[in-house]
């Protein structure tokens, strides 16, 4: 039987979790004592305890269509969608002490420190009773990946990668029209460089582990989703 969460997330970079407990979905919390991911120890772990927990990371360059496809996956396969970018934007406009740091980082197309992003993701993983998660736009770097794996002690079940030519990504971002501060050509150029330098190594890492499902992101939304559907049919037989 699942117990009610009693964990309190203290709003600090050091990710202190002051009480032990578990969420409806079985995420257990342990006491955090350290600040940097490299300092996390075995006892600091936040573990998915629900035996059927499924975590899929959703990767791809800026504008490759991650968010669009995640919405379709939610409708069709009932996953909970966590967008790291959306969580950071929400945190940015809240009263958070990290607000201005997140704003500056996103404007410059850089990556927010993992301690902040992982904390926001863990909070979502532990809330509600879902146990099937799409984590969109994360990990964006090896630092993100290592922090998540150290803290949760778990790896994604599988990883989707939306492969899209730069030219197409630029076209999509510049016509997105959602008022995002990073949807301009200067920030986009920086985001593409960061994507290549920091995110592609993560993509390679999961490819080598046999967890990566590469999707051709060029085509209509429905054409792309047909490929996604095939991946879910395949993984549902092995997860
Ligand atoms: N297959 C597609 N063909 C054409 N346009 C698309 C396609 N998929 C998504 N788009 C459009 O491209 C834009 C970017 O898509 P989306 O926001 O899903 O990308 P993203 O990968 O989440 O980007 P970001 O990393 O910047 O959040 C949106 O305006 C969306 O409507
Ligand atoms: N793991 C992440 C995810 C996102 N960010 C920041 C930097 C991105 O450019 C921005 C927007 O993310 P998106 O909505 O495009 O997924 O948010 C980050 O620092 N770390
Ligand atoms: Mg997105």
UniProtKB/TrEMBL annotation:
<feature type="binding site">
    <location>
        <begin position="137"/>
        <end position="140"/>
    </location>
    <ligand>
        <name>a ribonucleoside 5'-phosphate</name>
    </ligand>
</feature>
<feature type="binding site">
    <location>
        <position position="180"/>
    </location>
    <ligand>
        <name>a ribonucleoside 5'-phosphate</name>
    </ligand>
</feature>
<feature type="binding site">
    <location>
        <position position="219"/>
    </location>
    <ligand>
        <name>ATP</name>
    </ligand>
</feature>
<keyword id="KW-0665">Pyrimidine biosynthesis</keyword>
<dbReference type="GO" id="GO:0005739">
    <property type="term" value="C:mitochondrion"/>
</dbReference>
<protein>
    <recommendedName>
        <fullName>UMP-CMP kinase</fullName>
        <ecNumber>2.7.4.14</ecNumber>
    </recommendedName>
</protein>
<keyword id="KW-0418">Kinase</keyword>
<dbReference type="GO" id="GO:0016776">
    <property type="term" value="F:phosphotransferase activity, phosphate group as acceptor"/>
</dbReference>
<keyword id="KW-0547">Nucleotide-binding</keyword>
<dbReference type="InterPro" id="IPR000850">
    <property type="entry name" value="Adenylat/UMP-CMP_kin"/>
</dbReference>
<feature type="binding site">
    <location>
        <begin position="110"/>
        <end position="112"/>
    </location>
    <ligand>
        <name>a ribonucleoside 5'-phosphate</name>
    </ligand>
</feature>
<dbReference type="GO" id="GO:0005634">
    <property type="term" value="C:nucleus"/>
</dbReference>
<comment type="similarity">
    <text>Belongs to the adenylate kinase family. UMP-CMP kinase subfamily.</text>
</comment>
<dbReference type="GO" id="GO:0009123">
    <property type="term" value="P:nucleoside monophosphate metabolic process"/>
</dbReference>
<dbReference type="InterPro" id="IPR033690">
    <property type="entry name" value="Adenylat_kinase_CS"/>
</dbReference>
<feature type="binding site">
    <location>
        <position position="176"/>
    </location>
    <ligand>
        <name>ATP</name>
    </ligand>
</feature>
<dbReference type="GO" id="GO:0006221">
    <property type="term" value="P:pyrimidine nucleotide biosynthetic process"/>
</dbReference>
<keyword id="KW-0808">Transferase</keyword>
<feature type="binding site">
    <location>
        <position position="144"/>
    </location>
    <ligand>
        <name>CMP</name>
    </ligand>
</feature>
<keyword id="KW-0539">Nucleus</keyword>
<comment type="subunit">
    <text>Monomer.</text>
</comment>
<dbReference type="Pfam" id="PF00406">
    <property type="entry name" value="ADK"/>
</dbReference>
<keyword id="KW-0067">ATP-binding</keyword>
<dbReference type="GO" id="GO:0005524">
    <property type="term" value="F:ATP binding"/>
</dbReference>
<feature type="binding site">
    <location>
        <position position="191"/>
    </location>
    <ligand>
        <name>a ribonucleoside 5'-phosphate</name>
    </ligand>
</feature>
<dbReference type="GO" id="GO:0006207">
    <property type="term" value="P:'de novo' pyrimidine nucleobase biosynthetic process"/>
</dbReference>
<keyword id="KW-0963">Cytoplasm</keyword>
<dbReference type="GO" id="GO:0019205">
    <property type="term" value="F:nucleobase-containing compound kinase activity"/>
</dbReference>
<feature type="binding site">
    <location>
        <position position="89"/>
    </location>
    <ligand>
        <name>a ribonucleoside 5'-phosphate</name>
    </ligand>
</feature>
<comment type="function">
    <text>Catalyzes the phosphorylation of pyrimidine nucleoside monophosphates at the expense of ATP. Plays an important role in de novo pyrimidine nucleotide biosynthesis. Has preference for UMP and CMP as phosphate acceptors.</text>
</comment>
<dbReference type="InterPro" id="IPR027417">
    <property type="entry name" value="P-loop_NTPase"/>
</dbReference>
<dbReference type="InterPro" id="IPR006266">
    <property type="entry name" value="UMP_CMP_kinase"/>
</dbReference>
<feature type="binding site">
    <location>
        <begin position="63"/>
        <end position="68"/>
    </location>
    <ligand>
        <name>ATP</name>
    </ligand>
</feature>
